[in-house]
Structures are given as C-alpha cells and as structure tokens.
C-alpha cells in the first residue's frame, strides 16, 4: 500500500456551490472530492472549475483533510487537469468515467509536462469497458487508488442490485483484485444513495469492507459517521497490529526466517500488510 494513512470517508461536494464549499471542511470527512462532473450542469463547468481552483488555493498548506477533485471525461478532461496542476493543497484528481489506461496516461503526462510532480490519480470505474480494463488502469502512472461508480455502471450494464447487492459482488471483486495485483491502495467503496436509513447503510458499508474496499465515498454528511464506525479500527485491533509490526521487526533484526506472535501464530507478509492497513486507518482522529 502506498501512503501513510487511509481516509475512511470521502465527501462529494459540488464545485459550483460556494456555500457548500465554505462548510465542507466542517463536515467531519477525512477527505473531500470537489465535483466538476455530475453535480455540475454543462453551463456551469467553467464557473465551477474556477471556483474550485480559487477555493483550493485559499486553503492552508497543513490541512489534515485530503482534497481531491473529480474532473470531467471527454473534451474537458485535459482542460480540467491543466487548470488544477501545481496546486499545493490538492491531493489528487478523480478521473470520472475512466475508460482505460489511455485516460490515465493522458492526465499523468499533462501534469508532468506542467511540472506537477505530486498530484495523484484515482480513476473512477463506471462502465463495463472500464471494469474489463481495470488491471491496466490500476498499473497506470500516478494511480493511487481505484474507485467504483455503481450507479453509472448499472445504467451501462443493466445490472439492478437488490438489497444485498449480490449482483455487484463479482465486479467489486475484480476491482479489488486489480488493485491488489498492481500493489496500490485498496479501492474506495462506492457511494450509496441511502441518506436517511443508517441501519441499511451500515449493513451495506460492512459488506463493502468485507469485500476488500477501504473507505467509502459519501454524497451526504449524514453518511459520514456510519462509514467511520465501519472503517475505524478498534483499540484491540490497533494493539494487535502494533504487536505484529513489533514482533516482525524483532525477528527481522535477529535474522529469523520464521516469525510467530505471542499465541504461536505465524506472521507472514500477508499478515504484515493487514497490520499496516489497520494502522493506516487508525491514523485518523476518533469521531
């Protein structure tokens, strides 16, 4: 996994709504995704882009909240990316409706040409074509994490998920496997349209976590506490993860090839990765 910490929640905020942008950092999300795509009508694209750029440049350099921007696909892809290059407070760009590795390379090449060396990329997998290309997309330059967009995916494929979302299980597994194979962060869980049913959202988010996603995109601040409950490790899980890292480091220093924990259980690289993921999620304030 890349990165030191993993956001549990990413809150989408319309880029053409200054009043929502002004309150976005008070909503409690670990990360924000300022939206230039679906939330913004075509007539507002230019205004939204300039508003988001201005807002990003006004933020303090030491801000704890990650700041992402979802950029438009197609003709506006490179226009958006170019306008957002070299903004110090920007964590990365979410590439909406990413169709393949070519979209990733085009944005990455543009950023590099503009002298931007730090902006990360999060391709959004929203079509059948993108699902099938997910392994190649995940291997692309600057790709930090994948995200899955299931509303558009359903429209593209005709899949109609039931309450248990079983119809999406196979596709979700493909995105998780593509991420693991590329050795990038686990993918970000999909948005849910459930904004006033915390019990159903909890069940859905727990399912997403079990399927291998880390964190979840949110479309409403009311979803954030539920998502945090699911993805915040318990004190016991944190202590166990710290113990795993400590035991592994001691064994490595002693040149031991076999590492066992205090209960005699084998600690291998998979266990070590799991412990690091737990601590990455724990590196967030309790809310």
In short:
This protein is of the alpha/beta class and 287 residues long.
Give the CA-CA distance, first to last residue. 24 Å
What percentage of the residues does DSSP assign to strands (E)? 5-15%
Q: Sketch the major β-sheet.
A: 7 strands, parallel
The count of domains is 2
SSE succession? EHEHEHEHEHHEHHHEHHH
Structural class: alpha/beta
Beta strands, count: 7
Mean pLDDT: 91
Q: Give me the Rg, rounded.
A: 19 Å
Instruction: Report the uncertain regions.
Output: none
Estimate the helix proportion, in percent: 40-55%
Using the alpha-carbon principal axes, give the shape: globular
Number of helices: 12
User: Can you identify the CATH class of the largest domain?
Assistant: Alpha Beta
In CATH, the homologous superfamily of the largest domain goes by the name Phosphoenolpyruvate-binding domains
- Give, in spatial order, the strands making up the sheet with the most strands: 6-5-4-3-2-1-7
CATH-level-2 architecture of the largest domain: Alpha-Beta Barrel
* CATH topology descriptor of the largest domain: TIM Barrel
């Amino acid at each position: 996994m890349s990165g030191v910490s993993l956001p549990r929640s990413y809150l989408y905020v319309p880029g053409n709504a200054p009043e929502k942008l002004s309150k976005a950092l008070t909503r409690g999300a670990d990360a924000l995704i300022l939206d230039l795509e679906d939330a913004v009508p075509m007539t507002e694209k230019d205004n939204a882009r300039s508003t988001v750029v201005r807002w990003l440049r006004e933020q303090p350099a030491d801000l704890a909240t990650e700041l992402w921007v979802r950029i438009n696909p197609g003709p506006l892809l490179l226009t958006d990316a170019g306008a957002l290059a070299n903004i110090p407070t920007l964590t990365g760009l979410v590439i909406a409706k990413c169709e393949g590795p070519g979209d990733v390379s085009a944005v990455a090449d543009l950023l590099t040409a503009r002298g931007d060396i730090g902006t990360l990329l999060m391709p959004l997998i929203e079509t059948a074509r993108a699902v099938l290309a997910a392994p190649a997309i995940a291997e692309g330059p600057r790709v930090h994490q994948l995200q899955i967009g299931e509303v558009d995916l359903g429209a593209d494929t005709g899949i109609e998920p039931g309450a248990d979302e079983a119809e999406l299980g196979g596709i979700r597994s493909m995105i998780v496997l593509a991420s693991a194979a590329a050795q990038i962060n686990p993918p970000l869980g999909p948005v849910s349209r459930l904004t006033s049913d915390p019990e159903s959202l909890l069940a859905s988010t727990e399912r997403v976590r079990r399927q291998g996603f880390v964190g979840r995109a949110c479309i409403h601040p009311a979803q954030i506490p539920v998502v945090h409950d699911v993805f915040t490790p318990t004190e016991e899980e944190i202590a166990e993860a710290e113990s795993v890292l400590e035991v592994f480091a001691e064994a490595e220093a002693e040149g031991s090839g076999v590492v066992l924990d205090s209960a005699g259980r084998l600690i291998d690289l998979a266990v070590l990765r799991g412990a690091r993921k737990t601590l990455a999620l724990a590196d967030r304030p309790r809310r």
